[in-house]
Amino acid sequence: MIREEARSFDTRILVPTLNFTRASDVMLIDTHIHLYLEQFKDDLDEVITRALDADVQIMVMPAINIPTIDQALNMCRQKEGLYAMTALHPSDVKDATDTDLQTIADYCSDPHIVAVGETGLDYYWDQSFNDKQKRFLRGHLEIAEEADLPIVFHNRDASEDLIKELRSYIASSSRPERIRGIFHCFGGPIELAAEVMELGFHVGLGGTLTFKNGGVPDTIIEIPMSRIVLETDGPFLAPVPFRGKRNEPAHVRLVAQKLAELRGMSIEDVEHLTTQNAVQLFNIDPTRVLKR
C-alpha cells in the first residue's frame, strides 16, 4: 500500500474500458489487492465482474492492521477465490504491542490466510520509530517461519535496512528454507533485484511497470519469470492509462500485457507462468476461483 496515493488519487469511480485479449484456458491472480477498503464498498460486485471479464479469478488481500484482517476474512468466507494475509503494515506499528503480534500469529490457523503481510519497513512518512519497525519486522518473520507461510514485504526508502534485517534473520534461523515470499510493488534499484533473487524471494509487479520513466522495466531485466507475480495494490497505483484513478483487480491484465511486451512473450504465457508462481508460493487451490 502506498500512502500518498491514498491521499491524492482520484476517488471517482472509473469503469474501465479495456481492450483485452481473452485467454479462456488460463487465468490471472491479483496477489495484492485491498478489496476491503472504502473505495470498493459501493460497487464491489461490478469490480469482481470486471475482474472476471479480464480473467482475474483469484485475489489475495494483504492486511494493514488487525481490523482489516477481519474484514478480509469476512470477504473470504463469502466468496470463493478470495484469500487473505495477516500482519501490521510498517506504518501502523507505532502504537502496536506484543499482544498485537500474538493476535497476528493466531490468525495463521485460519485456512483463508495464505501469507504474513504486508509487513516490512517504511521510512518515508515518519522515521521516529524505525527501531520499532525493525523489531516488528522480526516478529513477523518469526510468525511466518513458525506458520510456514510466505511473507510479503512493503519497502519504502528502506531497502538497505530491510535486506540487512532479512539476511540477519535467515542466518540465525534453524529453518531458513521456510523464509520465502514477495517484495511487493517492486521498483528496484537493480542492485536490490540481485539481492532479492539471491535470497530466493519473488517480486510483485503492478501498475508502476507501465509508468513512463518509472524505471521498473530496466530494474527487472535480470529477474526470471519464475520469480514474478502480478498485483494491483488497488485501489492505489493504477496502471497507464488509468494512472491517478482508482485501481482495481481487472487492471492486473494491463500489467500482464506490459510484461508480455517487455519479455517478447504471449499474454497467455505470462498468465500461465505468473499464476503458477502465485499458486505455488501461496499454496492455494487453482480450481477454487471467483464466480459471477
What are the key terms here?
10 helices; alpha/beta; 38% helix; 8-stranded parallel sheet; TIM Barrel; 292 residues; single chain
Helix content: 25-40%
CATH domain class name: Alpha Beta
Distinct helical segment count: 10
The whole-angstrom Rg is: 18 Å
Q: Gap between N and C termini, in Å? A: 27 Å
Strand residue percentage: 5-15%
Low-confidence stretches: 2-24
- According to CATH, the homologous superfamily is Metal-dependent hydrolases
Order of helices and strands: HEHEHEHEHEHEHEHEHH
- Here the CATH topology equals TIM Barrel
Question: At CATH's second level, what is the architecture?
Answer: Alpha-Beta Barrel
pLDDT averaged residue by residue: 92
Judging from the principal axes of the Cα atoms, what is the shape? globular
The profile of the biggest β sheet is: 8 strands, parallel
Task: Work out the oligomeric state of the chains in this entry.
Answer: single chain
Decide which structural class fits the backbone: alpha/beta
- Tally of discrete structural domains: 1
Biggest sheet strand line-up: 1-2-3-4-5-6-7-8
Tally of DSSP β-strands: 8
Structural account:
The chain is 38% helix and 14% strand. By secondary structure, the protein is an alpha/beta fold. It has a single domain, classed as Alpha-Beta Barrel (TIM Barrel), CATH 3.20.20.140. An eight-stranded parallel β-sheet has the order 1-2-3-4-5-6-7-8. It is globular, with a radius of gyration of 18 Å. The two termini are 27 Å apart. The model is unreliable at 2-24 (pLDDT under 50).
